[in-house]
Amino acid sequence: MASRTRQFDLVAALLKAESTLALATTDEYGVAVAAPLFYISDEDLCLYWISAASTEHSKNLKREPRASVTIYRPTDNWQDILGVQMRGQVFPVRDSEHKKPLIGLYSDRFRLGGIFRQTIARSTLYKFRPHFVRYRDNSVHFGYRFDLIFAADP
User: Fold this and answer.
1) Of 14, 54, 57, 109, which has the fewest Cβ atoms less than 10 A away?
2) 77: number of CA atoms within 13 Å, CB side?
């Protein structure tokens, strides 16, 4: 088993290499709802995305901020399955000093340019802080995985 630092680095590298997550929230009836979203990540394995308040997942997160995320490398070969499952807390980023550079990074990464400027201004920047991460890599061996557990917000 790799050291925790090495495990953390493997997760961080995967998050930086990929661009799309599947966000799982629950609706008002407790039914799971999934949405694909572009994201960026930071050095603490937190994920950020931009969404309109009118989306189903944004409404769900307003009511219940706990969510799950999965990110994986697309493949047609079981031996190449590589991905993460994450559980954590989601909240809007309100601090403009923190928000502005993140929106800049997000816009640059996905080459949004000026076309989406008004849409982004009307949208919310969300932060997903994981408290559980499960990393899977079938190239090591079938079913290879490790878990990282972080303190959850009180």
Assistant:
1) 54
2) 5
Q: What's the helix, strand, coil split of the chain in %, to 5?
A: 30, 40, 30
Q: Which of 92, 7, 94, 73 is nearest to 45 (CA)?
A: 7
Q: Give how far the C-alpha of residue 81 lies from the chain's centroid of Cα atoms, to the nearest Å.
A: 18
**Can you read off the two tokens belonging to residue 15?**
């998050």
Rg (CA), the chain: 16
From the list 126, 129, 121, the residue with the least C-alpha distance to 86 is 129
- Angle (CA) 12-14-17 rounded to 5° is 110
Helix (H, G, I), strand (E, B) or coil at 96: helix
Alpha-carbon span 119 to 89, nearest angstrom: 25
Q: Domain 4-149 belongs to what architecture?
A: Roll (2.30)
Q: Give the pLDDT confidence of 60-94 residue by residue, as tens digits.
A: 999 999 999 999 999 999 999 999 999 999 999 99
Half-sphere exposure of 126 (CA within 13 A, CB side): 26
pTM of the model: 0.92
**Coil, strand, or helix at residue 78?**
helix
